[in-house]
Structure formats: C-alpha cells, structure tokens
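Hi Q.,

Before the meeting this afternoon, I wanted you to have the 3-methyl-2-oxobutanoic acid prediction in hand. No need to reply - just skim if you have a minute. The sequence and ligand are here:
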Amino acid sequence: MAKKKMIHDFYSMKKNSQKITFLTAYDYPTATFAEKAGLDMLLIGDSLGMCVYGYESTVPVTMDQMICHSEAVRRGAPNTFIVGDMPFMSYQTNDEKAVESAGRFLKEAGCDAIKLEGGVRIKSRIKAIVEAGIVVMGHIGLTPQSSGQLGGHKAQGRTAATAKLVMEDALAVQEAGAQMILLEAIPPEVGEAITKLLDMPVLSIGAGMKCDGQLLIVSDMIGQFQAFTPKFVKKYCNVAEVIIAGMEAYCEDIRNSKFPEDKHCYHMLDGEEDGFLKYMNTLKK
Ligand code: KIV
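Predicted structure with the ligand bound:
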C-alpha cells in the first residue's frame, strides 16, 4: 500500500512537475475504491447535496451532513489525504464561526484539510483558520455557493477585466496563508498563469491541463449523476447503465422464479426437518 501523502508531498509534486490526482468521494465504498485506485487526494465536496441528496444546489447542505460523510470517507480511505468542504453558512458570517466549523472536520471526521470558497472577500476567514493550525485549500473562479451572485453556474474570468479579478482572488488566498488552491471553470490561460505565479499546489476543475493537478466530481466521472453534465467533465465509465441493467435482471429473475436458487437458501440443519414436519402435522385439522 502506498504511503499516505501529506501537504509537503504535494509541494514536492508541484516542484517535480508530477500531477496530483484528486476526486470527490462521499461514502465509504467509493472511498475504498479511490484508495485502491491510488488517488492522491479526496474531497468530501458539498456537491453531495446534488449528487447524494438530490437537492437543486449545494446551499441546503449542513455541517452535520458534511461531518457524517467525511467520517465515512475517512473510514474507507485511511491512507489518503482528505479535504472537507465547508458548506454554505458554516463560515460566511464571521471568523470565529469559520474556525469552529473548520475544526470540526479535523476533530470529528479526521480530515487533513478544509476547503472554502472565495478570495479577496474571505481573506480574514482563511487567515483565522490557518492561524488555528489547519491546512486550507482556497477555491476561486466559479464558486457554486455564490452562483446566484455570479448569474448562475457560469465560467469566470473570460474577459481581461474578470481574469484580473480571478488573479486578485488567487493572490488573496496565497497572502492569507492557504496552502493549496482549487480553480473552477476558468480559461486555461488564466489557470496556467496562476499555476506559474503561486508557490502552492494549484488544483483544477475546468481550469485547463497546465495546473498542478486535476479534480472531478466522482458522480460525473463514473456516470452516476444524470441531471446535467458540466463542460469540464470527462466520463470514464457509465455505472448508471451497469446498475440499471443489474436491477432489470433482478426483477426479471424474481418475476420468472429464477431467484433465489437453492444455493441462496439456508436449509434446516441435518435431522431437524422430521421434527419440524411432526410439529406442522399437529397444526393440521
Ligand atoms: O463540492 C464540490 O465537489 C466542489 C467542487 C465542485 C469543486 O466544491
């Protein structure tokens, strides 16, 4: 089994131009698969609101839900670096609340780091969490928790003026002391510029191939989430097809009395059947 990577390993990977592999996971079985597949890092994303709970956005997700899922992922991937995603309203109000919420991911769920959305406007939150001794991953570009303000789930930084704003956010995240940053849905040119400018590992979800590592949402990547597919997604398999085919075959077997077979049955222990039949006869009128 590969040794668990820690934050300094990701800095070495950046230095040595080795790409970092990053994927979301929300549950125990997926985490076991991810660890077996050799993922470097897992994110318990608040995207579980849509992918697991069927909400329309990430906004309703609570801290308690995030902690529950993070605990399950930690049990499934004990040797993988895991990042807990701060849900909406767990850090927006003030620095104290942000530190308290971030601390829960480490204390209760055994996460190695936390992620939160925003740059310039949440600089003091990042600083406060870092000062509490917690590894922080910033998240800028398309920030789904504030998609209302962004006019929907839209790519960011596609004009010179908005690319400058993305760059200012990246610099604010670095100045606040975060140790990693995630760029979502921005042009590859901007992703590359930020990757070159910042010392910290830069992860991408829709920010081009020049970043230090790549993230996808597992439910998109394995073809499980059906509602919509962002442009940055590549589907590597289609588990929905496999699962639906399996369920159809199961129904078919039941309807045709092909399941269960004898090998699926718990027969009575040797010599016990006679006694049971005698008892049954006493019930007959
Ligand atoms: O919640 C999540 O999975 C995320 C990704 C969309 C980056 O934050």
